[in-house]
Amino acid sequence: MDKDLSQKRTRHPAVASMFYPGDLEELRYEVRSYLNGSISEKNVSAQNNDVISDIRALIVPHAGYIYSGEIAACAYRLLLQNRKKYKRVLILGPAHRVWISGAAFPSSEIFETPLGKIKLDKILMKKIVKKLPWVSVNEEAHSQEHCIEVQLPFLQETLEDFVLIPMVVGETKPEQIAEVINQFIEDEETLIVISTDLSHFNDYETATTNDLRTACAIEHLELENLYSEDACGVYPLRGFLSVAKKKEWDVYRLGLCNSGDTSGDRQRVVGYGAWAFTE
């Protein structure tokens, strides 16, 4: 780690102690517990995918850990098989807090969690901004956004040295997101992470039906059958699936549930799913 990281512009945690523990030791214990399965997954529809290797991308949820931590861990624990492989992580997630046109990188050079600092790949980010006019730099869009931040402790516990490229996505066309992803498509040391939850605020039975339909669309790479009511991160999700379809990547469902399974409240639930993609 560079000695001067603390002198660079840092994005400090915005949702620590809300979406996940703000204390370093408590956070590390909770993340590791999810990863090793010591937090029960009895309510999570998860599959045993220990044989999956050479992962190019993950789709993971971004709710508070008490709701979606188990599902996220279904995906992230696969990275433990090869902690040193990935040198860069490209995360694309939806803009919840600030409306943006196109997509945006932060101006920050460091993202921080209670587990430490992560350096951003500013060189590649600047190249993308210069190349793609619909990609901007917008610190405000990132400062309070949780969809990327909640992924970072899992990455810090499953990977070794890596740099981060965080992109918040507004209304975009699939081919625009594909332009970004294609910058990294031949680089097997870059992990692509799509951060999205599934349906929002339906009753339990409706959510279960809708999310299963969404899962099938993802697994058949049918981006044309995904809509904003199916996933809050539908724009980065559709763009990513267009790339996965063209590259003929294999997809594995790792887990599927909703907040009614993890919290017990089945009146207004949010859906969560995790998938891995391999070449």
Describe the structure.
The protein is of the alpha/beta class and 279 residues long. The protein has one domain (42-185, 205-226, 239-278): LigB-like (Protocatechuate 4,5-dioxygenase, Chain B). It is 32% helix and 24% strand. It contains nine helices and 13 strands. It has helices at residues 24-36, 65-76, 122-131, 139-143, 152-158, 174-181, 204-219, 234-247, 259-263; strands spanning 10-11, 45-46, 55-60, 88-94, 103-105, 110-113, 116-119, 135-137, 163-169, 190-195, 200-202, 250-258, 269-278. Strands 2, 3, 4, 5, 8, 9, 10, 11, 12 and 13 form a ten-stranded mixed β-sheet that branches. A three-stranded mixed β-sheet has the order 1-6-7. α1 (24-36) crosses α2 (65-76) and α6 packs across α8 (234-247). The longest helix has 16 residues, at 204-219. It is globular. The two termini are 32 Å apart. Mean pLDDT is 93; it is low at 1-7.
Annotation field: number of helices: 9
Helix coverage percent of residues?
Answer: 25-40%
SSE-based structural type: alpha/beta
Number of strands: 13
Radius of gyration: 17 Å
CATH class: Alpha Beta
Order of helices and strands: EHEEHEEEEHEHHEHEEHHEHE
**Approximately how much beta-strand content do the residues carry?**
15-25%
Tell me the CATH topology: Protocatechuate 4,5-dioxygenase, Chain B
In the predicted model, the low-confidence regions spanning at least 5 consecutive residues are 1-7
Number of domains: 1
End-to-end distance: 32 Å
Quick rundown:
Helices cover 32% and strands 24% of the residues. It has 279 residues and is of the alpha/beta class.
